[in-house]
# Entry
Amino acid sequence: MRSRKIKIGVAVAAAGVLALILTTTAAVGSRNAAPIGSGKASATHSICGLGTGKKATGSGIKIGGIDMLIPGVDFTTIGKTAAAYFDCVNDNGGINNHPIHYILYNEQLNPAQEAALARKLIQSDKVVGVVGNTSFAECGTNWKYYKSKGYVVIGAGVQAECYSTPSFAEVNSGPRYSNVGAAQALVKAGITKLAIASPDTISAYADGGPALVAQKAGIPYKIFPTHLPVTDATSQLIQMYQFAGNGGGILLDFTPDTAPAFMKAAEAQGIVDKVKWGSSTPIANTFMSSQFSPAFDGQLYIDNEFSNVDPKVGPDSALMFQVIAKYTHPTIAPQAFAQMGFLDGMFATHALLSIKGPITAKSYNAAVVALKDQKTDILCKPFYVGNLPYHIPNNTNIIVDYKAGNVVVRSGCTDFQAVDPAITQTRIWEKKYHLNG
Amino acid sequence: MNHVLGFSVFGVDWEFLKPFIVIGLAFGGVYALSGVGLVVLYRATGVLNLAFGAIGAAGALIAYYLLNHTGCPEWLAFSICVAFGGVVNLAYGMVFGPAFARRDPLVKMMGTLALALILLGLMAWRAPAGGAFARFLPLPSTQVHYDIFGTIVSLTQIISIALAFVLTAAASIFLRVTKLGTAMRALANDREITATLGVPVRRVEAAAWFGSGIACGAAGLILPDLLTSLDYSALTFLVIASLAAALIGRLQSLWATMFGGLAVGLAQSVLSPYSSVSNYRSAAPFVLAIAALLYLSRRRVVTISRAGT
# Structure
């Protein structure tokens, strides 16, 4: 009899424990099942758009973008990541229940094609805004057209017109200023000469900045415009090394499609530790560091226009990793171009959500111009647009290096050298109009 | 690299020029290798194979995939890369060779261009470039370096040059000494008469397609290592420099083709430090080919089409 009571007691206790486990598991499960980017935004949690966790079901809002894709350079990662962010927004209530329909076109560094695609987006597709554009030449081709139509593009810039006309508000600093930051770090590290290489199509603009840094520091420099795709990386690298000499600096301004050829050549030639290596942002990611560590550990001065690509940096970075994992093809790795696309999508969404009344091209672009003090852990300083003759909101960068397969920060947020009057003027406007805090 | 100047060559310090000579000879070795393969095939079948680079690139991409996405050992992946060249070349030759046998050499060449474009399309479809990805196909020999006269030379570079010599010598001996080689030379002279004499034309042609494909696969394996990247479009257009080498050899002489390949590689590389002409280096293969053809045609008419085939 007593034994039976004990058995019943054990069974009841076991059932209780089981119920407790099931309840806890269900609670954790339901929390895990919460859609990415949903919930309430806080200092530790970022959301996509409204963060409702419910799919937007209303009529679509058309947004478009144009990215360059040529052998040796793929900028489509930017548009693809912006698209991923919009997908996340659409799964979280969209823009007041209206999903964003993002149309992304690729171009092959062809001005006629760039002009045609911009007109197709605005006149045929009737997009209300243009977001996520990146190209070697599209800014120069289309800035007057965008201006005539009243469009302000949130994108990631490369050439001069992206930073000297009112039609673009780029989330990145661009190669010229990223190279300036890298050159500044190399000069500080004590280089005696500086060899600089960029793709030939952007060399005059992109290499002109670091050349000014070297000139002001009294350091001899030489520019090596590089035709893409690179077919003789070793020959060019030897030329650069022969100019820079031991103790000199070599600054590479290439995307992850092209930079590795030079870095492999440096390893093969045994010159990795004979010079100091500078680079613009695109190689500041773990895909690259895992390939070139430990050979390049402690040798690199990479100017990173964004925070380190690490989910632990802050809630926006964490959300970006989640969005990439869920909404993009596995070939899209978390890297600078993904950060650019994520920010493009995020700021465009903020502009859309700020609109009171119907969403039209006029109301959207007015909302873009009104953007200011957009804080994010992915940038050193808040992003803004403002009614300005040109925009260079990202003018503070960090310097990173490789270490044990990771990207590590050498020095934190620093204003890059004002080699151009436009940078000085930009910083004056920021203070005058309280654009970024 | 802050050397005391020894002597200069047209204003460039000899010490600065040495690494470019090594690089040029290594690239030249690959051009020679594939150029000799082109000539052997042309002599036996009358086909100028424009798909040479694309086949090599496709083989290299397969090896890359096997090494990075399966547990395939290096030796097997590299062997498959080389064998792929032989098999695809052979398959093309067996399927389309007979159909094109009596057509004009230009038509035969266009057929191989189609193969090149199909392979290029397949590579772009299955292995798109871009994003955060760059592909490498380093050979173990890259890790081995020698300091020769103050210049770093990798084992891959030595293999490239040596292989060009070995293949050219082997092909020359093969064509001169063996029965199959004699049959190939006979085919080159007159296909109809050779067939009438009882030579198994299809079998001889198959051997030429396969052999030249192996050379193409070997070039596809070495070149990504020299380029320090596996760029299939660059590999595909390897055929341009190889074609120039073959033209220098008038599509006949294996040794002239080999030295032509080395000269093309050397010219492209050695011009690098001369800033005034550096941007025109890519024209070097055809400038050399034209110069060689003009020089060689001083006493005779150069014919690159095969009459009667």
Observations:
- Chain A has two domains: 61-174+309-396+423-432, 176-279.
- The longest strand of chain A covers residues 61-70.
